[in-house]
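G.,

No rush on this.
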Amino acid sequence: MASRKTPILLLDGGLGTTLADQHGCVFDASTPLWSSSLLLKSPETLLKCQSDFAAAGADIILTDTYQASFKGFASEGSSSLEQSKEYMRSAVQIAGQAFEKAGKGKGKVALSLGAYGATMIPGQEYSGKYDEERLSVEGLRKWHQERIEVFSQDANCWDQIHIVAFETLPMLPEVIAVREVMEGVGKPFWIACVFPGEGTELPDGSAIKDIVKAMLGGPGSNRPMGIGMNCTKIGKLDALISEFEITIKEMVTAGEVTEWPALVLYPDGTNGEVYNTTTQEWEVKDPNGRSDAPWDERIFDIVSKVEQRGLWSSIIVGGCCKTTPNDIGKLRKRIDQHW
């Protein structure tokens, strides 16, 4: 058995899609909170779904707060700002309970904080087409600050969070904004961007070189422990990772970075399907883009190549939309057998 050079942690999978496909949950325009609506309506269903991911072998469970917003909770029946905060904080407790329900003891809880566009109707995290107030670094910083304070200002809740996960960021100003928000917070965090187009740039047109420099550059206590990508087609990962690595190598050579961060990877579990934010349906856009290889095999091969290069401090890998507990369980088995 080969000795492991790079620590690997397994993340969970696609919460919203698993709730819809396996638990009969319906998410549409009447549920702007998407899966976070279960915090109000059916926390026991949410716990069951997340415990399935824990039982499958996930080391880290993301909280059900990706689309959480005050506006969303108000529109779904929350009676006050304070009640909305309590609903959001309850997601942290449920994620922790998932490990216990699965008989796994204590696991790591990552606070899921989606892009501002994830709270828009229809969602704009794949486009970055935000309203005017949220196009600037300052406007985005203010919005993210207000949301993270829901958790950071409650000491008991904050103590239960091991990592803060900024997810599906589609634009450079939002990367800069979340780093500013985390200045002096004292909690490990990662930044994962989304790459939905055919190229390797962000939806706002930003090049990977600029993205990585924004993620890791500059002084201060707000440098993320991990960077990477989520909600992106698995077939794009090799090219994206390569460009990430080229930029970090350049930063190391220039003395801008002294230690490599963790690589965070949780691509979609789709096989040719693309989510239409207007119809809110999964559609097969390119039948030729389908693969005969299972998802767990494809992502494992990518992780193996990354691990063999030995650059990153660790690898955090899991799945996004359409990845199921079964997928995560198969990936767990591959990782355990190899390492």
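When you get to it, here's the other one too:
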Amino acid sequence: MFDADKWQEIFAALGASKVRTALTALGVFWGIFMLIVMMGAGKGLENGVKKDFSNFATNSLFMWTQRTTKPFKGFPPGRSFSITNEDIEPLRRAFPEIEALSARCQLGGYRGESNVFYGTKSGPYEVYGDYPEIIEIAPRKLLEGRWLNELDQREKRKVAVIGTRVRDVLFGQEAAIGKYIRVQGVYFMVIGVFDLFSSANNSEREVERVFIPTSSFQQSFNYGNSVGWLNIMTKDEHLISDIEPGILKFLAERHDVDPNDARAFGSWNAEKEFVRISNLFVGIRFLIWVVGIGTLMAGVIGVSNIMLVVVKERTREIGVRKAIGATPYAITSQIVLEAVMLTSIAGYLGLLGGVYLIEGLNYFLVSAGVDAGMFENPEVDFSLVIRGSLVLIFAGGLAGLLPARRAAQVDPVIALRSE
């Protein structure tokens, strides 16, 4: 049952010393405000990091050959070897879990660049030979024309799909489809222009790429049947980590490499990396909660100390209440409610301030088109607001518990004699 008199007394007690109440409330406000801001900023950082994974499948594996470090079958250590075209189809047959596979070559090796020409214009770009399936492993948004297809690969067609940055620099306002670009004296017809679905941390480099069929790449640039590295994606019901050891063993056997030579192959497992990043942010969220709750508890302790002072100052008042029949429960509930009210009002103001700051920052980033790099879409989860509310109520009750017990133990006779 709602007791208007009790709540009027609570607000009167809190307003009796406005400066002291405000300073005490500031500690609680700052604690919950910082918790919300840190959680929102942490989510923004998490979104930014995970955005980098949006431009390739998380159930994918990228692998390449290195030098051997162990002797095997008469071969000395330090031997170089390469994956070849002849490995591709046997690998597909040996591992039916594979959904897509692309054998990749790159001019100049990893992160190497080559000058690409169109008329009098040129620029240094990454030139790749890839299977058409690479678009399944690393999705691109096709803006013009088409992607590479199986016929391009089989007939070794001299065709190319270019990134938007390549198009803008080489062609400007001119249509790129059907025009010819030149790479190391070899002409390729542009059949498509692509962009990324989301602007990741390395998106500028991604759209400065040229893709041609692997078969045409090997023929045009005298690569023979060698492949730089493999890009592999499993079917949705399979984990790439489950078949990665088998793939490495399979290729080691085909190239007379010791299966236990851990340095003979290099690899990057997107699934493991995604799990590692996810676990990292679980730890970050836990740390943020520890710091935020610690800051909030500092404010709560301040509330408890102030309520102890209030109880001491109101000893005579409490004595009068008990003398005219007030029960210990009535005295205790009055003090606890005062503490809960002070904590809740200050906490909710901090909670609203934190939410408005995060949402305002997000609105500014979106409306102004600011590229925040690894910081993307900071947000506050509604469940976090609910948990914060429950923490506030609990903290308020905890803050008032000790002062309330002290008030309930006041002896009316002694209290009435106090000044």
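Residues 33 and 352 are 8 Å apart (CA to CA). The chain has a mean pLDDT of 82.

Enjoy the weekend,
O.
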